[in-house]
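Class prep. Protein, please:
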Amino acid sequence: MDNAFEMVGANSNGNSSTNAAGCNTSNRLTLTKTNGTQGLLNADAAAAGWDPNVFQANIPYSLGAVYTAGSPGQEGVSASGGKFTVSTTEASDSRENNAWRSGLGIRVDIPAAAKALVAGTYTDTVTVLIEVI
């Protein structure tokens, strides 16, 4: 019974990518989790009722962006190449870039839940924003 209602597996991850992203001037790439630090939320959990001592209705997660870009004002690609992370304790993060065009990969890392999970569907929305600076 120790494993009842627990997330299957130790950790989970997923990827989303595009082969064409970028901006033709200095810009900021931002990743934002709509539910913030709560991560994936079970909207139906409140109706079911649950004991917060042993269950949780959210699953925090982190995001990682990988692409090819340099820093504003720089010609060429920087040593970091265009990488940043939105940790489980952040709702959003960003990186400023020079003009760039490359593939963009976004990785989602979901650590195993600390407590058992309330039954239901866990959802969130990730917003990818490229804006001129």
